[in-house]
């Protein structure tokens, strides 16, 4: 078949260039997967050896301190603790990769089942908290930087200082005493009122989502009523950090020459602030927000305790008090995996927003 007149045959260099691009992408994906695997393997090693170093006997947690030596030895043998340490680690990695975190002494259920039950509650509260922190912290940081030295800047800085200095449990107790016990604006401790508990079939574990799936708006609004105060307390602490970092980034950008040039040319101040100065700080802000979100997911133990919130932090605290090492290691591993995931997502967003990093 003869080629049509006016059409040029494909250049061999074009195919070679496309092949090189696909090769680079495949290499980047392979590097990404290997990095995640090695990081996760390191996390497994850390959690395993910490579990062996902690002066808590997992056998006694199972059989009790009044068990006979024969019962103790039999339980130790069945748990594989008589094996060399490297054999135990290989078995531990294999069990974790197959989704087997062992049985929880505290609840009598598989640890993975407990985590799938308790972690969504923490995820729901931390997600609402970070949304509050971002929605308020970023604008406040921008306003403080654009009006540096004014009374508004001073107030925002004081709010940020309070977010760093006020204890979380104290703020939670004050919030309960004021907004729940006195004003009755929000719901009390727990995720729901007691008479709504168990009425929504769990699908995702996220109560707001599951209540909408079930079409039960009464439970949805009741869940929001209970979620609002603990999420607002968490959001206050993330707001303080995000506002402080946003202000710092914006002050650096507002001192740049291109901002001065835009102002000299008569560009409106709103455009100078939000387009010329704010756009370059989006990339570092992603890292700040990601770290703040991860901190809320793993650092909400005090808030969950104050509000009797059935989350992973409360579960981890109970497991520590009961010397339930399977639950402790499983919850720690999940929290660490969430940190890895959030960091990798922030790296991907970093490359999407900044072409220079690709």
From TrEMBL:
Tell me which species this is from.
Devosia neptuniae
Q: Which PROSITE patterns match?
A: ABC_TM1
Ranges of residues in domain ABC transmembrane type-1 = 119-350
Pfam families in UniProt: BPD_transp_1 (PF00528), BPD_transp_1_N (PF19300)
The protein here is known as ABC transporter permease
Q: Which domain of life is it from?
A: Bacteria
Entries under InterPro entries matching the protein? BPD_transp_1_N, MetI-like, MetI-like_sf
Q: Which residues cross the membrane?
A: 29-50, 125-146, 158-181, 219-243, 283-303, 323-342
